[in-house]
Amino acid sequence: MSAQPMPFDERMADLVPSSTAAKFDRGIVLDGRLDEEVWKMSTPAKDFWETFPSDTTKTAYDTEIYFGFDDKNLYVGAICYVPGTDFVIPSLRRDYRAGGNDNLTLVFNPFKDKTNAIVFGMNPLGVNREALIFNGGESGGDFREEWDNKWRGESYIGENYWSCELVIPFTSLRFPDGDTQWFFNSYRFDTQSNTRSTWHRIPQNQMIMSLAYMGTIDFIGGAPRSQGSNLTFIPYVGGSYSRDMENNTPAEWTSNVGGDAKVGIGSGLNLDLTINPDFSQVEVDRQVINTSRFEIFFPERRQFFLENADLFGSFGFSRVNPFFSRRIGVTRDTSTGEALQNPIYFGARLSGKANDDWRVGLLNMQAAANFENGLPSYNYTVAAAQRLVGARSSIGGIFVNKQNFGDFTDSTETNLNFNRVAGIDYILATKDNRWNGKTFLHRSFSDRDNGDDYAHGLNLEYRTRYWNVEYDHSYVGEDYNAEVGFVPRTGIFTTSLEARRIDYPENPGVVNKGPFVNTRLFFDPEAGLTDRDLFTGYGWSYGNTAEFSLFGGYRYIFLFDDFDPSRTDAMPLPGNQGYGTYRAGFEFRSDRRKKLSARVEAVGGQFFNGQSYELSGGINYRYQPLGSIDFRFNYTYIDLPAPFAQTGLFLVGPRIDLTFTKSLFLTTFLQYNDQIDNINVNTRLQWRFAPVSDFFLVYTDNYNSLDFNVKNRAIFAKVTYWLNI
Questions:
Q1: Nearest to residue 129, comparing CAs of 107, 100, 97, 155?
Q2: Which three-class secondary structure state does DSSP give residue 136?
Q3: For the purposes of burial, counting CB atoms within 10 Å of the CB of 687, is it exposed (0-12), middle (13-18) or buried (19 or more)?
């Protein structure tokens, strides 16, 4: 089989492919085989286009996707043609990421806004995944695989093909009641032909999950209808043993009972309720070595906060964000740096589509006091709304309120009586995805004296086949205070310009290559220009999926205050002076289709008034399909003149995944962090004994890396059950 290349024409991306979904008068046998006659009643989504290693041909090994529906379910069947059956399947764990293995991903956009989508995926061994895409799918951070819902799927491996069938209840979807057309796209990774392909043609310089490029599904013989106010109850029972050896406290035995409820309101809105939620099963954060002056961002992983999370959490920029859900119910142990749960009494969230043009969200959570960390009982309320403007753009508003319900109010502003943020955002996304951007204006309020409490930002990105250019600036007032947000730096104006040239050489071994440059300036309202960065480099993407880049540049940092970049209580560098440094490095990522793959990055050069060298990366070995070993490491050597820091900082974090079956998983995560003198051991056993119903057993230990004495130890057990009422 072969496909003929043709010159790339961006107008081809405007051609919208179409398919149909037929009304089924009976169900199917869910075995992945597609041998029922009813599948032939629909017009399939087929004739996929390559997006890697080229984007100028239709794929030689096509995919055919068929659709059907009845009063309760959406049915999907797919046939994926392949040159052989030597598949890459890293493990049997569900919710895998698409890169580096064989799989098919289905992207549904029922409201046709090209902004938010629901994802379902299958691989040749019948391993399932589901996820949410938001913000148009324009970056890797717009994909949340932690989201969970109830559906079924099976796969079958035949001769020169593999196939799959899915049964998705309409109660697990959000869609416009009675609409006869949805938007849809699909992308597929085939490791044997070394291709990535999509149904709607997507240019190679765009994200493969971009929602700007969507085909259609037309429902023939009817339309999906709402099931009314459906109710799902998810109770849990849990217990734990824990002991703090470092503070010599007695062992503590606890038991918990609580649960969540999901109430479908119409076909577009969902009411989520939780009482005494417990998140002990959530995987621990990957630690990092932090030599900067500011807080590190860790993503939200808790299931309750994930659906429609973008409606609440994507206002502003990533570092000027008025609402960050991890501020609710999570504090941080000051001795280990580990995140700790701060109990939540109850919470409710109403979110979703009010109609084709409006998305609305209202969240309220009541957290318990944490006396050890000096936290009162806070109530958190967030209201957000977003209106579609034009094809894909939108305008939205947010209001965040953090209210002190305790008696910890003091004059040091540690626990204010209230903290509030109000803001408005405009998001630009053109139909052809050539222009994307955002502008916002936010203001904070509290019971302290008001000052410069505004934040503003503008971002604009221009994308063509050969150029990606992005400009942004943001201003954060000295008194802007978003306690429920993520704003690591205030009293600053920063502006940046980035550009990348993309060339597509005729050499089949190189997919694309090109230079890039980025510059960023920081201004203090009183001191003027303080920090500045200028970096440039050159990158190559290869036909075997490997990537390589070289980079270097200049950075100037002005320290207003004394600062120890090693964060090891060494002698701090003197403040009120600037430090200019030149640094260079490279990054390499090998072919992820191989059983043994690696990523390595090396950076070195001047660092404040001395030198530093960093080697980081990871080595992954898969023993498919039983699991994989992902060994991540970071070594940073800081060499400052005496009496300042001269030290090497290690961070080693091997993660061992063992999947006994498609419903029984064991993960062991070890982290040795020399910067905070901590060794963390986290082992999690998950048994999915019924759809979206799990038993978890989690063991965690923290040791002092200097003397290997145990700091604290805990074991958790938890059972959840998904019950449709």
A1: 97
A2: helix
A3: middle
- Residues making up the chain, counted from first to last: 725
DSSP states of 519-547 as a string? EEEEEETTTEEEEEEEEEEEEEEETTS-E
Alpha helices in 278-400 (DSSP H): 309-313
The domain that contains 186 carries what CATH number? Answer: 2.60.40.1190
The DSSP string of 63-95 is EEEEEEE-SSEEEEEEEEE-S-S-----BS-SS
- Taking the C-alpha atoms of residue 132 and residue 185, their distance in angstroms, rounded to an integer, is 14
pLDDT tens for each residue of 198-225: 999 999 989 999 999 999 999 998 898 8
In this prediction the pTM is: 0.89
> In 3D, which of 559, 668, 635, 604 has the Cα closest to residue 288?
635
* 310 phi and psi angles, rounded to 5 deg: -65, -30
DSSP type of residue 632: E
Omega within 30 of 0 (cis) for the link into 299: no
Average pLDDT score over residue span 504-508: 89
Give the angle 291-293-298 at the CA atoms, nearest 5°: 75
Domain that holds residue 214: 10-220
pLDDT digits (tens, 9 = 90+) for 534-585: 999 999 999 999 999 999 999 999 999 999 999 888 999 999 999 999 999 9
CB atoms within 10 A of CB 638: 23
The residue ranges of DSSP E strands in 292-415, in sequence order, are: 330-332, 339-341, 344-353, 358-367, 378-389, 393-404
Q: Are 165 and 77 in contact (CB under 8 A)?
A: yes
Q: Are 634 and 289 a contacting pair, CB within 8 Å?
A: yes
Helix (H) or strand (E) holding 454: strand 454-463
Half-sphere exposure of 327 (CA within 13 A, CB side): 20
Q: Tell me if 391 is assigned to some domain.
A: no
Query: Could you tell me if residue 420 is inside a domain?
Result: no
For residue 44, what are the contacts with CB-CB under 8 A and spacing of at least 6? 19, 64, 65, 66, 67
Say how many domains are in the chain: 2
**DSSP summary character for residue 686:** E
Decide if 2 contacts 83 (C-beta within 8 A): no
Provide the pLDDT for residue 1: 41
Last residue of a domain, one of 191, 220, 249: 220
Decide which of 190, 220, 250 is a domain's last residue: 220
Pair 647, 638: CB distance under 8 Å: yes
Residues near 7 by beta carbon (within 8 Å), at least 6 away in sequence? 56
Residue 385: C-alpha distances to residues 223, 415, 599 (Å): 28, 29, 41
- Cβ contact 420:403 at 8 Å: no
* Buried/exposed code over 271-302 (b: 16+ C-beta within 10 A; e: otherwise): bbbbebbbbbbbebbebbbbbeeeeeebebbb
Question: Which residues are CB-neighbours of 578 under 8 A, at least 6 positions away?
Answer: 530, 556, 557, 558, 559
User: Looking at the domain assignment, is residue 609 inside a domain?
Assistant: yes
The residue behind tokens 């030290």 is 647
Within 8 A by CB and 6+ apart from 303, the residues are 146, 147, 148
The span from the CA of 507 to the CA of 543, in Å, is 9
For residue 189, is it within any domain? yes
Token couple for 618: 């990871």
Question: Would you tell me how many other CB atoms lie within 10 Å of the CB of residue 630?
Answer: 18
Tokens linked to 384: 């957000």
Q: What is the pLDDT of residue 14?
A: 64
Structure tokens at 583: 């640094």
The two three-digit tokens of residue 521, written as one number: 């300036």
